[in-house]
Design a protein that fits this description.
The complex is a heterodimer of chains A (about 400) and B (about 300). By secondary structure, chain A is mainly alpha-helical. Chain A is built from 15 helices and six strands. Chain A folds into two domains: about 240 residues, no CATH class; about 140 residues, abc type-2 transporter like fold (3-Layer(aba) Sandwich), CATH 3.40.1710. Chain B contains nine helices and 14 strands. In chain B, about 30% of the residues lie in helices and about 30% in strands. Classes of the chains: A mainly alpha (about 400), B alpha/beta (about 300). The complex binds adenosine-5'-triphosphate (ATP) and magnesium ion.
């Protein structure tokens, strides 16, 4: 191998890249946009939701009214954010229409007599309308509203128990039975709410979503930037005739390939490094891979370069290479668990996360760097990835040699 | 003493998927001469050059460079200037030269020397260069490692007249420095202006080799009548005379101008030609090609 020639090829590639605005965008900016987008949407800290709630009620002059309920709703805050923004509607129809048009997230209808029923201790009804067209949105809206009403219900129950206790204390014959008002009170509370569930949050050890999205970004680099950089980079030089020229020089087509792979590897490593630093700066969190983590990244990038080169050499056209890479990588983004957690991948696609080298490499990288699993847990995966990478590398070399023959050098 | 052959080719054959592009080429280029391969499109000039300079595979034959078998080792003797630009568009002139210097392991000082010699704008990106400058950058790249043989494929194709003249000067300069130059061209003016010796190629074979004078003498006793104007009825002359027509100028080969001229003029005028100029001319290499193949160069 001609070292000076290989070095020359690497420097030339890096210089070219520096001036290629589109490539810079796809390799550096696009993945950062990805981290930013998903990081701010789901990563790190979730700000509390805020819902637009339409209400319909008639004015009553009882002690407690629907109006009082809406006031309470309007005052609920979490971390300084008002959870419900209340909009009063004149009729159920106009409220429903607003809900249908997405102007409000939910509609709460207090039928006439609500206030009187509540005030006189009878059961009162509330109708709540949701829009189910977006299932996730529906879950969030319903969950939030129901949580509010169940809290409200609980308070009302407690109030009722207070009132009942007053009567009981007044009329309960004392001393006859060994029952204290306290015991009665406890009993009543328990019959109204036999189970009390308290949520406790575990924090500290739990991985935050941002780390997951960092690994997704690394996966995206392998699925797109790496494959396209080496594939189209090689084809460009074939089409332009410069590869023929290089092969005619004292350097060989193999020196060229070595230079191309090293420059691609360098570019991808820099882009991954930039992504890791970026995440640290913007989200205050990042992954600092262990040596084994870097080894996984290295192996996956070799696999990805080989796959990209193999596709390029088999199609021998930049357009087809771009098309094939997109065609393969787009579905894999999801099916191989690159950007979505394995738990929500359809079961028929699970083998991709198990046996497709890039899916498996990323999975193992996550186990190692996010979930801190012991090395022995990921050894089988790493072995598989290593074997697949070696095979893909050989296939790429074989196709490259074949393409060089076709090029008559 | 036998002169050292810079390039020696025997029985070279090459086919592309069954199509014979070279049908047994024999060629000798002496050290220090400018040698032109003259032939029309598809003659096989580029194919021959790529075998010499790019290591393109061939079917049979023998090639020696300064007596050594053509190989990766002899590659360093040959500087190759292909027709297309081989510079990277996004790199500057200087960066391109640096890259190729690394490839050929050429001394770094050579870069600035060549930039000065060819008067190249070193900070300009290759994509911003004019056609003439690109060609000169190609030349500079080929000269980085000081090759003894320079091979240029259609060096002046696509260049305007001043750039072409400049390039010719440069090529003549290489000979002064003792380099051997092999060019391919289908402009007979170029071959005549530059070459010490010319090989005329047609359809994969070399049909004649010699100095321009030797080749022109092949036209023999014949004279050339050159007629310019709006010409009609040339095809009526084709049975009787060899002729080529290009841009309203017809060159007609005749044995006895005095007898043939009236007949020719009469035929043309009767067919409705408007003749502007009639000259009796010296033969050119184009006429040689016409004599040998029965058709024109372009
Ligand atoms: N890579 C190739 N595959 C198939 N046929 C080819 C290839 N390169 C050249 N040929 C054919 O070989 C013949 C010789 O081509 P070549 O390019 O050597 O001619 P040339 O003399 O350089 O012509 P030109 O003046 O057009 O450059 C032509 O008929 C051409 O079509
Ligand atoms: Mg040619």
């Amino acid at each position: 191998m001609k070292l000076r020639a290989v070095k020359g090829i690497i420097i030339k590639d890096l210089r070219e890249l520096r001036r290629e605005k589109m490539a810079l965008f796809w390799i550096f900016i696009f993945p950062l946009m990805w981290i930013t987008l998903f990081g701010t949407m789901w990563g790190g800290h979730n700000p509390p939701v805020s819902l637009d709630v339409g209400v319909v009620y008639t004015n009553e002059n009882s002690a407690f009214t629907a109006h009082n309920v809406t006031e309470i709703m309007g005052n609920v805050t979490l971390e300084g954010v008002h959870i419900f923004r209340i909009k009063k509607f004149a009729s159920e129809e106009s409220g429903i229409s607003a809900l249908k048009h997405g102007k409000i997230d939910s509609l709460v209808v207090f039928p006439p007599g609500f206030g009187r029923n509540v005030s006189t201790g009878r059961q009162a009804k509330i109708y709540v309308y949701f829009d189910r067209s977006d299932p996730q949105e529906y879950q969030i809206v319903r969950g939030t509203l129901m949580a509010f009403f169940s809290e409200m219900e609980k308070r009302m129950r407690e109030k009722k128990i207070e009132i009942q206790l007053e009567y009981i204390e007044k009329y309960m014959p004392t001393g006859e039975y060994n029952i204290t008002p306290e015991a009665v009170r406890e009993y009543l509370i328990a019959s109204a709410e036999p189970l009390r569930i308290e949520e406790k949050e575990v924090s500290g050890n739990a991985p935050t979503p941002i780390k997951f999205y960092i690994t997704s970004f690394i996966g995206i680099q392998f699925l797109f930037a790496t494959m396209l950089t080496i594939g189209s980079g090689t084809l460009e030089e074939i089409e332009k005739g410069t590869l023929r020229r290089i092969a005619a020089s004292p350097a060989t087509a193999w020196d060229f390939l070595a230079g191309k792979m090293l420059s691609t590897f360098f570019i991808i490593m820099v882009s991954i490094f930039v992504g890791l630093v970026y995440s640290r700066v913007v989200f205050g969190e990042t992954i600092v891979p262990s040596p084994l983590g870097w080894l996984i990244i290295f192996t996956a990038s070799v696999f990805s370069m080989s796959l990209g080169l193999a596709i390029a050499m088999a199609t021998r056209s930049i357009k087809s290479t771009t098309a094939v890479v997109n065609f393969i990588s787009m579905p894999l983004l999801f099916l191989a668990g690159i950007v979505i957690p394995e738990s929500i991948i359809p079961s028929w696609a699970r083998p991709l996360t198990e046996y497709f080298a890039l899916g498996r490499a990323l999975k193992d990288f996550r186990l190692l760097e996010i979930y801190h699993r012991p090395v022995r847990d990921i050894m089988p995966g790493l072995t598989l990835v290593g074997v697949e990478t070696a095979m893909m590398f050989l296939i790429a070399l074989f196709l490259y040699r074949w393409a060089m023959k076709r090029m008559e050098v | 003493m036998k002169a050292v052959r810079a390039i020696e080719i025997r029985g070279l054959k090459k086919s592309y998927n069954g199509f014979q592009a070279l049908k047994g080429v024999d060629l000798e280029v002496n050290e220090g001469e400018i040698f032109a391969l003259l032939g029309p499109n598809g003659a096989g000039k580029t194919t021959l050059i790529r075998i010499l300079a790019e290591g393109l595979g061939y079917d049979s034959g023998e090639i020696r460079i300064f007596g050594e078998k053509l190989s990766k080792k002899t590659a360093r003797f040959i500087g190759y200037v292909p027709q297309e630009s081989i510079a990277y568009d996004l790199l500057t002139v200087e960066e391109n030269l640096k890259f190729y210097a690394d490839l050929y392991d050429a001394p770094k000082e050579k870069i600035s020397q060549l930039i000065d010699y060819f008067d190249l704008p070193k900070k300009k990106k290759a994509k911003e260069l004019s056609g003439g400058l690109r060609r000169r950058l190609n030349l500079a790249i080929a000269l980085l490692y000081d090759p003894k043989i320079l091979i240029l494929d259609e060096p002046s194709a696509g260049l305007d007249v001043p750039s072409r003249r400049e390039l010719w000067e440069l090529i003549l300069g290489f000979r002064k420095e003792g380099k051997t130059v092999l060019i391919s061209t289908h402009y007979m003016e170029e071959a005549e202006a530059l070459a010490d010796r010319v090989a005329i190629m047609n359809e994969g074979s070399i049909i004649a080799t010699g100095t321009p004078e030797e080749l022109k003498s092949l036209v023999g006793e014949e004279s050339i009548i050159q007629i310019e104007g709006l010409l009609n009825g040339l095809e009526r002359l084709k049975d009787k005379f060899r002729l080529v027509e290009k841009d309203g100028v017809a060159r007609i080969h005749v044995r006895t101008p005095r007898e043939s001229l009236p007949e020719i003029v009469e035929t043309l005028v009767r067919a409705g030609s408007e003749i502007r100029v009639i000259k009796i001319e010296e033969p050119t290499l184009e006429d040689v090609f016409l004599k040998l193949t029965g058709r024109g160069l372009e």
